[in-house]
Amino acid sequence: MSFYNQTLECLPRIQLQDLQILRLRQTVAQAGQAAYYRQIFQDRKITPDLINSLSDVNLLPFTTKDDLRSGSPEDFLAVPLEKVVRLHASSGTTGTPTAVYHTQDDLDNWTELVARCLVMVGMTPSDVFQNMVGYGLFTGGLGLHYGAEKMGAAVIPAGTGNSRRQINLMKQFKTTAIHIIPSYALKLLDTMAELGVDPARDLSLRLAVIGAEPHTQAARQRIEYGLGVKAFNCYGLSEMNGPGVAFECRSQTGLHLWEDSFLLEILDPTTLQPLPDGQVGEVVLTTLCRQAMPLIRYRTKDLARILPDECACGRTHRRLSRILGRTDDMLILKGVNIFPMQIERVLMAQSETGGNYLIIVDKEGPIDTMTVRAEMSKALWDSGPGAVAKLERKIERLLRDEILISPKVELVPTGALKAAEGKAVRVLDNRPRISEE
Ligand code: ADP
Ligand code: ZN
User: Per-residue pLDDT tens for 124-176?
Assistant: First the structure.
């Protein structure tokens, strides 16, 4: 079983593009049923028959998170409420959570996409799948849950937190596959080390789905090595269903984005003009099958690039690079642009650092300062203050080379930093906002 829907997953590009044009036209018609788009379409004289090629997407308006927050969520509803069977919301990482409505068909489509993803990475009906993320409004729980059931795995709806309980479940039910947020996976590795659990000896894990937050290749390798699994990157956002928008295949080179369901654009975040394939820009997505809440040219604020060439797995849907960060996450210190992932890359390359870290930004007088506080392994802590200070200075030097400013590095014992239940908060920016100065 290597495909869930081979016909669609391997559809020749020409046919895939024809399908996209057809669905884009249908989406414009459907979006016109929602009060928000009806008004804009009327003002700009936008009708479905304007769409004759994929580049005609240029004629359509963008939608931002602020637009979603601007009025009532129902302004985006394109079907009568009696057709709606579920509501989800974003995690609210950057402000008020935004709501998304689904009809039964919307949910069925989402479930199929997730089932495709799981089969793509080699999950089979014999797998026991422990879903270790939040159930509820957050889309990660129910999204993966239904997709895994659909492809036939035995699903344990474990939810978040309580590492001991999670480990016991893994032992008791011989869990083979997990879905876990990467920052929590790193934390779980520390807990396993503390409890003397050796995954190779005590557990049956072989596969992990990791996503919902930016993470580096170094973090993935740590998770793979520590848990003895292959870990696959899963990208999604609640506005586009949730997890399963794009997912790595077994070759782990980029994430196939399901182009029969989403129209992908990579745009320059300032000019909003298309960038050539291969250049990093903002991921902009249009739903192609949504009934309850079609979204047009949604600006995700996520930065990624399209990878060239066809994938060896045979799927024709293009691949996104790993998400390099959100435009919102970018820190500007002393005029230098810094992404938290640059710091994570340096930290994760040191075997003596733990999984949890926090970047603290302050202003001392007119000067921006940065402190990187990271947990360290018990072994390093036990080897005394001299060894700790030595590694602190080493990381400071490596960070200076990577981000071109000189942060202070403080290593703290495992467990000293607050652990997040859901997505990790990696940055604490204490600087007064410009408007308050
Ligand atoms: P919020 O925007 O409030 O976090 P969501 O729960 O919908 O709401 O999260 C979607 C966002 O999470 C994406 O836009 C992206 O920034 C991040 N994200 C999701 N999956 C990944 C991933 N695999 N890699 C990096 N970032 C991810
Ligand atoms: Zn592939």
Answer: 999 999 999 999 999 999 999 999 999 999 999 999 989 999 999 999 999 99
The confidence score (pLDDT) of residue 435 equals: 45
Take residue 35 and report the two structure tokens written for it: 């009060």
Q: Which ligand is nearest the CA of 232, by number?
A: 1
- Whether ligand 1 lies within 6 angstroms of the CB of 422 is answered as no
**What's the pTM value of the predicted model, to 2 decimals?**
0.92
What's the CA-to-centroid distance between 262 and ligand 1, angstroms?
16
* Any ligand 1 atom below 6 A from CB of 214: yes
Alpha carbon dihedral 130, 131, 135, 138, in 10-degree steps, equals 170
